[in-house]
Specification:
The complex is a heterodimer of chains A (about 1000) and B (about 250).
Chain A (H helix, E strand, L loop, with lengths): L4 H14 L26 H11 L8 H9 L5 H12 L9 H11 L16 H9 L6 H11 L6 H9 L3 H17 L15 H9 L4 H4 L5 H7 L3 H11 L7 H9 L3 H12 L4 H5 L4 H20 L8 H10 L1 H11 L8 H9 L3 H31 L3 H5 L3 H37 L12 E6 L2 H13 L2 E6 L7 E4 L6 E4 L8 E7 L9 H14 L3 H22 L1 H11 L6 E4 L5 H22 L7 H11 L7 H7 L3 H13 L5 H12 L5 H14 L9 E8 L22 H12 L1 H9 L9 E8 L4 E4 L10 H27 L6 H13 L15 E5 L13 E5 L9 H26 L12 E4 L3 E4 L11 H4 E2 L2 E2 L7 E5 L2 H10 L1 H8 L4 E6 L4 E6 L2 E4 L2 H4 L2
Parallel strand pairs in A: 1-2, 1-7, 3-5, 7-8, 10-11, 10-16, 16-17
Antiparallel strand pairs in A: 3-4, 5-6, 8-9, 12-13, 14-15, 17-18, 18-19
Chain B lengths: L1 H12 L7 H9 L1 H21 L7 H18 L5 H14 L1 H7 L4 H25 L10 H4 L1 H14 L6 H11 L3 H26 L14 H25 L1
Classes of the chains: A alpha/beta (about 1000), B mainly alpha (about 250).
């Protein structure tokens, strides 16, 4: 089968469009908090949640029992819940029924009271039998079959239908095979033996192996090789399989989305990689969604064809649809039996009938019995709801049919809506509490001893509050990359790491260089490490290695397990640590760039001449040879003589330099372009500093010291470590950004330009870069050797205050972590440190769990308030932002990141298995980029249970982000107009937006498509 | 008269195929009598066998017994409900009684001890049916997470019934293996393997996985738990008694 270019492009585009509801999955080394329903954010929240729940087979709400607990603990106010129930009942006419009370009781006391459960099984009460007779329900299996038939191809794949109708396990087998292919292909250095041919792309590499993979035969795949011979390109395979399955072209989009959503973790990872062209592993082993889909479809076809041999129906979409339509009753019985939906007391009879192929015999019995079970279930449910409300059963038993029907439809609808009713009531209660606490006054302050810029991260809130309490400190919240997007090349590493929100692609590269000259050669420790690594990864040596030196690892294990703190400190002392470094942030001139390239090329030529051609060459000759290779000069006899070779040999030398050592014009141009990206111009530096300081309202009254505090986390044996790092720094530590920002802000040229723009940073003000370790609450200083001596006395005081604030913060955190009050500061501090070194610790910190609000405004609004480390705080002074541009920047960057974090926690708490990652206890790292549960599973994309749940209860109480902006309403409206993404989020109800208008002194909320002013009684202020 | 007794032993008490079909049917259909019959039939069989003067049955009886056992062990591999598995497994185990009947003797403790293995399993099946209405894993899954105590006792009972070491059935298999020639022993090993495979396959499908959100899971009450634990303990202790006899 061959496709022309146009058709292939069409398939590629189609696959990309179909994959839009599947969220990206970033590799674990840089965990990015994201909304699992990001691809559905264009839909209203409720619709998206329902669609996501169907697509990813996930729960769309917390179970009622959890909400009841929150209600009893006072997190949800009775009034708010009653208001929401009243709103639900607004347009419903229910004669003589105290529906509000009934539903309120059901919600607050009805643990386990669900309609869908098998409540009737143990029901022996005669009232249920009596009531069941009056419950009006009907079943028409043929009609249901028509509905099922329509679902095939749109909501069910071919193999889903076969599995459901005939009890096969194709879907499970397919997932297993595909996971294996993906894990082998996408491996990023974990496997010792890599899959061959990966540089040719996922489909081609797999195809080469699959045509001769006999194991596929054992696994129940039929004719993979034959089909692969037909399909050289992945697009051809997609079309081939869809045609073979008889999927009509008008539903290809649905079918492909269905396939891609099956293993949405793996799909998300392939999708992310194919969208990140500069990712090292993507360049090395390219994979895209068309490849992935082609492999999935081909494997599914092979499995289906094998099963088809024993099926009473052909394995194509039209044939399956026809089977369901023609033998509707049989199809529904089969379907319900294999999906566990048939009445339990009929399971044995149905199983026997299926085995003996006489389903026709039990059809009537099945229809009658299932209907009876359904009615009995309803009756039993109604009685329990009635009992729960404390009403007399007799009143229900005497209820006329019409009222009974109304009651049933009310309860059905309520069960559907209840999750959202609880959610809104919860949000209302939280909002009320928050608004009643914030302070609206404005204070004029003098020059503070020091100011500290923290990340907006919720964990900074505690530290900021404690720091403000221990001394004369002013603190500010700003996105943790301090507004400077950088691509960082770490000391000793060859690749770039983006240290900025994932929405931004940095244009400037920052290099980390040794502070001191270092002699070439490797340390003994490094050599031993490499030898150990080789021994571990060789095919034979592990057998001997374990015998020979296994005991040494035993010491390590004992130390790490029994004495994590002491042993960890010892390891720290013994390790060489990172050498002292400095950052190159200034943009080099063109002359400098050319000079560097020249030095590099001369060195390459010198070594090549010496090692390959055994020639010793003078500096002058080297330079001439280089220029010849770069086509800047012609080779001449003089040069040949100088090198001691003939003319032909000289030409050969030049060719070798060009081809083997890449000393040539084109590559040099690329090098110049790359080097041109290094650093920032002075104007760029002034721009970034000005924008960052203005956005947080720090434009005057600078203290003597301004601390620029990034943050990061440190924990052992934790694949999710980067989830605890700074999201604004692309899931990495924030120290580098802090160092870059401090360096820029300390430069005299930058300050001069800032002064011209109205930001006068006094000469005695010094910016110092630090990093807050959120696991231990310790703060580390950087580049202190660049600090003027005059400021050293202040530093000691700051160090002491930071330490004290850290201890207090650790106390607060440990109380939450342990669930009991902590009294001893030192002990708690040690415990926090131990948590970061203990390799058995599954929860070194709660991270961002519990986040619920994002406040954009002055610190005075929340100063002194204990927000329990659960609120993002972005400083913003509307008075320095006349045009609202700074607000737009805050909305488009930090707020979107905040919403992703909030939604990641929301959905991970609501359904930890589907949207989260499940328990860490079962996790296995795969390919160094993700985790699976057990030995194979979908890639786990969200947060682990230990981050959002305490036992089975949600520690993170899921609500949509409450965003409070302190700015005139008109300005907020303008800013929203300018940021489409945020406008979409607000209008579709993904975030709750509140505006505190300082001019009118009023509070506004965007609700139901319009801005509504809060009444003072509504917010309790 | 003796022919009738022989027939009864073959068909009902230590059932072999195809005479085992009525037993299999009865045990499946009459759930409330199942536990009683499971204990009654083998003991009755033993008394009839004693009545005949504990004769040594011919060689073909051994082959019929082992053939039936293999057939039912194989059949148990494909069943989906615990109830049916229990019945097939019961027939498979008691068909092996013919090894002893043709090569040695059996005593009452031995027969009762083997039947006792199935008593706790049968009671558990009844408990599951009364809670969930079925024992079919297509309906029932994730029992481990939802009802851990019930799952624990279920796992122990199934493991004991597939001749886990130190259960009475384990020692009875050990004893019977000493009476067999190599080809017969290989057949026995195959049957044993099939028991383990089917049993573990079934309990893993019942116990693992996430509980169904639309199902109300219940556990066992303390009395039932104690009773089942006592029976299982008795099975284990009887195993040691068998060992004593064996040695």
């Amino acid at each position: 089968m061959r496709l022309d270019k146009g058709k292939r492009l069409f398939i590629r585009s189609l696959v990309n469009v179909c994959a839009e509801p599947i969220p990206f999955f970033w590799n674990m080394r840089n965990f990015i908090h994201h909304n699992p329903l990001y691809g559905l954010e264009h839909l209203p929240f409720e619709d998206a949640v329902r669609r996501g729940s169907r697509l990813f087979h996930a729960q769309d709400r917390l179970p009622r029992e959890h909400y009841i607990k929150l209600f009893r603990e006072g997190h949800i106010e009775e009034g708010s819940l009653k208001e929401e129930i009243a709103e639900f009942l607004k347009d419903k006419d229910l004669k003589g029924l105290k529906a509000e009370e009934l539903l309120f009781r059901l919600s607050t006391e009805g643990e386990g009271l669900y309609l869908s459960r098998n409540s009737y099984i143990n029901c022996r009460c005669p009232e249920a039998e009596r009531l069941a007779k009056r419950v009006e329900l009907t079943r028409n299996l043929q009609e249901e079959a028509e509905g099922l038939s329509r679902m095939v191809g749109k909501e069910l794949t071919i193999y889903d239908a076969i599995d459901g109708l005939f009890g096969r396990g194709i879907a499970r087998k397919l997932d297993e095979l595909l996971i294996k292919v993906c894990a082998e292909f996408l491996d990023e250095g974990q496997a010792v033996w890599g899959m061959p041919g990966r540089d040719r792309g996922l489909y081609r590499a797999w195809r080469d192996i699959a045509v001769r993979n006999r194991r596929y035969r054992l696994k129940g795949c039929c004719g993979v090789g034959d089909v692969l011979k037909e399909c050289e390109e992945p697009e051809e395979a997609v079309v081939f399989v869809l045609n073979a399955f008889g999927v009509p072209e008008d539903i290809w989009e649905d079918y492909i989305t269905l396939e891609l959503s099956k293993l949405h973790g793996w799909t998300g990872y392939v999708r992310w990689r194919s969208n990140t062209k500069e990712y090292y592993w993507q360049i090395k082993h390219p994979a895209d969604l068309t490849d992935y889909l082609a492999v999935r479809l081909l494997l599914s076809m092979a499995l289906v064809k094998e099963e088809e041999k024993t099926l009473p129906v052909g394995a194509s979409l039209p044939e399956i649809r026809e089977f369901i339509s023609d033998r509707g009753e049989e199809a529904i019985i089969r379907w319900e039996f294999h999906r566990g939906e048939c009445p339990p007391h009929l399971t044995d009879a149905v199983e026997e009938a299926i085995e003996e192929n006489r389903l026709e015999d039990i059809r009537e019995r099945y229809e009658a019995e299932s209907l009876r079970a359904h009615r009995l279930n309803w009756a039993s449910f109604l009685l329990r709801v009635w009992d729960n409300a404390g009403y007399e059963r007799e009143s229900l038993l005497r209820m006329d049919r019409e009222s009974l029907n109304e009651l049933m439809s009310l309860l059905r609808e309520y069960e559907e809506e209840e999750g959202f009713i609880w959610l809104r009531a919860h949000e209302k209660s939280v909002l009320k509490k928050l608004l009643s606490e914030i302070r609206l006054k404005r204070e004029v302050k003098g020059r503070a001893f020091a100011q500290a810029l923290f990340c907006i991260d919720v964990r900074s809130e505690r530290f900021r509050r404690n720091l403000e309490e221990v001394g004369d400190y002013e603190t500010y919240g700003i996105a943790g990359f301090f507004g400077v997007p950088i691509s960082f090349i770490e000391l000793g590493k060859g690749h770039e790491t983006y240290l900025c929100p994932v929405l931004i692609k940095p244009k400037n590269v920052v290099l980390e260089l040794h502070r001191e000259l270092k002699e070439e050669g490797e340390s003994l420790g490094k050599v031993i490490k490499e030898i150990l690594h080789d021994l571990k990864h060789n095919i034979l040596t592990p057998y001997i290695t374990v015998e020979a030196i296994g005991l040494l690892f035993g010491f390590d294990m004992v130390g790490k397990t029994l004495f994590p703190l002491g042993y960890g400190r010892l390891r720290e002392k013994l390790s060489e640590g990172k050498p002292s470094s400095r950052l190159m942030i200034d943009k080099p001139s063109k002359e400098y760039v050319l000079e560097v390239i020249g030095i590099l090329q001369r060195e390459i030529i010198r070594r090549a001449m010496k090692e390959r051609f055994k020639l010793s060459v003078s500096e002058g000759a080297l330079e001439r040879l280089r220029r010849v290779a770069l086509e800047e000069e012609e080779p001449d006899r003089e040069l040949a003589e100088e090198l001691g070779v003939g003319k032909d040999k000289l030409s050969e030398l030049v060719e070798v330099m060009r081809k083997d050592y890449r000393v040539e014009k084109g590559y040099t141009r690329i090098q110049i372009e790359k080097l041109a990206k290094i650093g920032f111009t002075t104007e760029e530096q002034a721009f970034f500093v000005e924008r960052a300081l203005s956005s947080i309202g720090l434009t005057r009254n600078f203290g003597k010291v301004v601390l620029v505090i990034g943050h990061g986390s440190k924990s052992d044996n934790n694949p999710y470590e980067s989830a605890l790092d700074c999201g604004a720094c692309g899931g990495d530590h924030g120290a580098v950004n802090a160092r870059v920002f401090a360096k820029m802000a300390n430069k005299a040229e930058v300050r001069l330009r800032l002064r011209e723009r109205g930001i006068d940073i006094p000469e005695d003000t010094v910016f110092i870069a630090c990093e807050h370790n959120t696991t231990t609450d310790e703060v580390e200083f950087f580049d202190l050797d660049e600090l003027p001596a005059t400021h050293l006395p202040f530093l000691q005081k700051i160090y002491e205050d930071l330490k004290l604030a850290g201890k207090r913060t650790a106390m607060e955190r440990c109380e939450e972590l342990e669930g009991t009050p902590c009294k001893d500061e030192e002990r708690t501090f040690r415990l926090a440190k131990r948590n970061s070194m203990d390799w058995t610790q599954v929860r070194p910190e709660w991270g961002l769990s519990g986040n619920y609000a994002f406040i954009i405004g002055r610190r005075e609004l929340t100063e002194g308030l204990d927000l329990e480390g659960k609120v993002f705080l972005h400083s913003y002074d509307w008075e320095v932002d006349d045009r609202g541009m700074l607000l737009e920047i805050i909305l488009s960057g930090p707020l979107v990141v905040g919403e992703w974090i909030n939604m990641e926690h929301f959905f991970s708490a609501v359904d930890n298995e589907s949207y989260g990652s499940g328990s860490k206890v079962y996790h296995n790292v795969v390919g160094r980029f993700g985790v699976m549960s057990g030995n194979f599973s979908d890639l786990k994309t969200g947060l682990p249970a230990q981050t959002v749940l305490r036992g089975k209860e949600p520690h993170h109480k899921p609500i949509r982000l409450i965003t409070l902006i302190e700015a005139p309403l008109g300005r907020v409206k303008r800013a929203l107009k300018g940021v489409r993404k945020v406008r979409e989020l607000v209008h579709n109800g993904w975030i709750n937006l509140i505006v505190l208008d300082p001019i009118e002194n009023g509070l506004y909320r965007f609700e139901g498509g319009e801005w509504k002013k809060f009444l003072s009684k509504e917010v309790g202020v | 008269m003796d022919v009738v007794v022989y027939f009864l032993i073959l068909a009902l008490l230590f059932p072999t195929f195809p005479l085992s079909l009525p037993v299999s049917f009865t045990l499946q259909r009459f759930g409330k009598l199942r536990s009683f019959l499971i204990m009654l039939l083998p003991i009755l069989g033993f008394f009839l066998y004693s009545y005949l003067g504990k004769p040594a049955f011919p060689q073909w009886a051994l082959w019929i017994g082992m053939g039936s056992s293999l057939l039912y062990a194989f059949r148990a591999l494909s069943v989906k409900s615990l109830k049916r598995w229990l019945v097939y497994h019961y027939v498979s185990v008691f068909s092996l009684m013919w090894i002893f009947l043709s090569r040695a003797e059996v005593n009452l403790v031995f027969v009762a001890g083997t039947a006792l293995v199935f008593l706790s399993l049968s009671l558990l099946t009844g408990v599951l049916e009364s809670i969930f209405g079925t024992t079919n894993p297509s309906f029932l899954r994730g029992l481990g997470a939802a009802s851990p105590v019930l799952s624990f006792i279920l796992v122990v009972s199934v493991l004991l019934s597939v001749a886990l070491p130190t259960s009475s059935l384990f020692f009875s298999l050990l004893a019977s293996s000493l009476l067999l020639k190599i080809p017969e022993f290989l057949l026995l090993a195959c049957i044993w393997f099939l028991w383990g495979w089917s049993g573990l396959r079934l309990i893993s499908s019942l116990i693992t996985g996430s509980p169904r959100p639309d199902l109300s899971y219940e556990g066992v009450d303390a009395k039932t738990f104690l009773l089942l634990s006592f029976i299982n303990l008795a099975v284990l202790l009887l195993g040691f008694l068998f060992l004593e006899v064996l040695l």
